[in-house]
Design brief:
Cytochrome Bc1 Complex, Chain D, domain 2, two-stranded antiparallel sheet, 8 helices, 4 strands, 5% strand, elongated, binds heme C
Length: 302
């Protein structure tokens, strides 16, 4: 009884916590939907287990009462009470249809090898039905997957899922422009905080090859209008992300987040036209932005 009381008070307590979660918005742990989901599910499982326990107990009581009545009736009628086999014994008998030891002679085969005899036992029905079932299933499977092609095979299923996921990504991107940054959505940011972050990244990891002022050393000059791979934000972003194979310019896509790559790309474009002393000679072609593109170098200088 004490245990039940404890469980009930625990339930009441969690109800109290739920009630609280409704009117506190300042970062209570109940705001986490996953936690709420687990707690609710856990609560429901506990309730379900309790209901099942009570139901089993009632069933036991009813069985006991039925047995008691049957015994009394048998006594009244003056016959001996024979207990019915339980459901477990009945199920076992159905599944195995075994021949009881007393009747074993009926299935004894008439050969004997050095006194070793053999029983002609049948296969257990559960096994036989599983076997027949697998044959039937095999036929259905073959027809459905290979004859009528009405159900998708693994490759098809895979392709459908990939297409579905791609569609979801496309929708997500359409709904949150700029949130998923890649070469298609990258922008030349003019946000001062983002550019400051870009500058920090540049000075920390890019300056060793491109110089702090972008004048170029192992890597090319990034301050002139000549680019080997193009000077649009999209092209710069792609080079930063994927690198240039067989050169010292490695891919930074694994080390830097898309946002950081957008920041550093935007920052290095602010160095356009700064003409630092002893800069490297131009490499590549003169880059002229298309009219639709943001003008490089025309961003906030920091
Ligand atoms: C280990 C040296 C090294 C480091 C570090 C380095 N780069 Fe480079 N970078 C190069 C070289 C070399 C090239 C020229 C590649 C080629 O020949 O195409 C290059 C090319 C580039 C280009 C293309 C230039 C053009 O003319 O098209 C950009 C943009 C660039 N780097 C940005 C960055 C940024 C941003 C970082 C830091 C995240 C960085 N690099 C770090 C060596 C480096």
């Amino acid at each position: 009884m004490k245990k039940i009381k404890a469980i009930f008070s625990l339930m009441l307590f969690s109800f109290g916590a739920f009630a609280q979660s409704g009117n506190t918005n300042n970062g209570s742990i109940w705001d986490d939907p996953i936690l709420l989901f687990y707690v609710t599910t856990g609560f429901m499982v506990v309730v379900a287990l309790l209901v099942i326990a009570v139901a089993l107990y009632m069933l036991q009581v009813m069985r006991y009462m039925a047995k008691d009545t049957a015994m009394k009736q048998a006594k009244k009628a003056g016959v001996e009470y024979v207990e019915q086999p339980g459901w477990w014994a009945q199920l076992n008998q159905k599944l195995y249809r075994y021949v009881p030891i007393e009747k074993e002679e009926t299935i004894l085969m008439d050969h004997s090898y050095d006194g070793i005899r053999e029983l002609d036992n049948h296969l257990p029905p559960w096994w036989k039905w599983l076997f027949y079932g697998s044959i039937v299933w095999g036929v259905i499977y073959f027809i459905a997957y290979h004859v009528t092609d009405s159900l998708p095979l693994q490759t098809e299923e895979y392709n459908t899922e990939v297409a579905l996921a791609e569609e979801q990504v496309r929708k997500l991107r359409a709904a949150n422009p700029g949130e998923v940054i890649d070469e298609n959505t990258v922008i030349l940011t003019t946000d001062a905080t983002a550019l400051a972050d870009g500058k920090e990244v540049f000075n920390n990891i890019c300056a060793s090859c491109h110089r702090m002022d972008g004048g170029g050393d192992i890597g090319p000059n990034l301050t002139d209008s000549y680019w080997i791979h193009g000077g649009s934000i999209k092209e710069v972003f792609l080079i930063v992300k994927n690198g240039v194979p067989n050169t010292n310019m490695v891919a930074w896509g694994g080390a830097l987040s898309p946002e950081k790559m957008q920041n550093v790309s935007s920052y290095l474009l602010t160095l356009q036209g700064t003409n630092p002393p002893n800069a490297k000679a131009p490499e590549g072609d003169l880059y002229e932005p298309k009219p639709s593109e943001p003008v490089v170098g025309d961003t906030v200088k920091i």
